[in-house]
Amino acid sequence: MRMLNGENAGRYDVVVVGSGAAALTAAATAAAGGRSVLVLEKSTLLGGTSAVSGGMLWIVDNHYARSAGLRDSKAEGRQYVEAVARGRGRAELLDAALDHGDTMLRFAEDELGVRFIFLDKFPDYRQDLPGAVAGGRTVEPALFNYREALGPLAEHVRTDGRHPYTMQEYEDWGAFTAFPWDELAARQAGGLAAKGHALVAMLISACLRSGVQFAVEARAAKLMDANGRVAGVQLEDGTEITADVGVMLGAGGFEWDRPLADSMLACSVRLMCSPPSNTGDGLRMGQRIGAMTRGTREAWWAPMSYTGGSRDGQRIGSLLRFERQGPGSIMVNRHGRRFANEAQNYNDLARTLHSWDSARNQPLNTPVHVVFDQSYLERYGILDHRAGKPTPEWLIEAPTLGGLAAKIGVPGQALESTVERFNYHAVTGTDPDFGRGTSEYDRYWGDSANAWPNPSLGPLQYGPYYALEVVNGAFGTCGGLATDGEARVLDVDGQPIEGLYAAGNTTESPYAAGYPGAGATLGPLMTMAYLAGRRLAGQPAAYAPQEAVSA
To answer: Is 0.70 topped by the overall pTM?
Structure first.
């Protein structure tokens, strides 16, 4: 164990395992309530999966939307989440996430100093379901100078290394080819952070102001018991740390333990983008003392490509978003045919990669490729590749569609006819086969300056043609320890385990298998962590915003 600030006292009110948004929210909330807190991080860097995420929070009926006069309600939010989750969520957790989401948001702003940007135009993912709204439930972190705020600790915060820009700016700038990259490089050099990096940096800053101590290279291995309650943790090296009030588990999912993931998840994951330290430590620690587990078949699914480079020495994937949603690209399966609406949300699209052809004992669709042409490359680029540069090894190129089909192993005639049919309808702004471009979500991720009628649709015009392989990936698992509506871990009989709390990907998601909108991972997990922190501090879940107090 290596302390980053202060010296290990060996005894604290609260010990937090993990350092992502759930762990940090609980730590900062408990510390703001007067508790002494130690955060234990297994790896060498703080921030967990949250630090390399988009950093957005999905909060139903939030005060930003109310101030803007946008229509929303908790009743509509509940109706929508229940539809997205296909009836598989637990009411207690769903109620906690919906009822206290905006309370958490106000507390994070007023007491922890986290700053957000309201994304009023970001639509819910499933516009076809009752209770969905066309915008108003998503917020994102503001830009934050983490070097100024954290000082020497800044170098110990995880980042994905990408240039700092907000989703709001993305909306304004559109395609990556139009981004002010020199300005963004200057921001990065000046210490500005965005997205998840900014979120965890702001939470760490709040922790530091309240005296929270941090340790890295501190892998928790066992929960300690004292008179029937969880009273601390034992590290892998045998070090014991006492927690007089309780232990909070926010140690991430189990996606990087391949045997465990293969035995539990509904489908094998080919690529992840989370830190490789997510190997289910929190899950195992809870199981060893009889904790109940729920929802372990699920993950935050996403279509990815083998272009993400590495993280902590392990190969990771890149989420494919505009690359498949922009006008002029399509996705084809092993038969050279389109098989889904390419512009739909990543969680649902990735599920189409899970289908299995039992009769032939092989995947129904995979291998899958994004296919586009030279005109698309000239307009938008693909990932970090731009027209005029040498074609990277991960991108397959051919002068004709038939030649491309041969290289990716699909029937040439099928690919050619697929493109011909897609083009015929795309120029009119329609997709009779899969309805691409009919929803607000599809159009949001399209190109508003598109030369054709629909922002999501455009024809493939001329060669050379390109293909990029797409595989089933995940941001992380989203099942694990079962908790009640106050984030207390439950035993196999459904009773709270005294002194043990958990939130985030270590636990069952309040939204079960559902992914309702941008930030639907961080929104509920930070809410549950806030509830844990308030209880650990001996304070009620309710919080009176500053203006309400002053009034």
So the answer is: yes
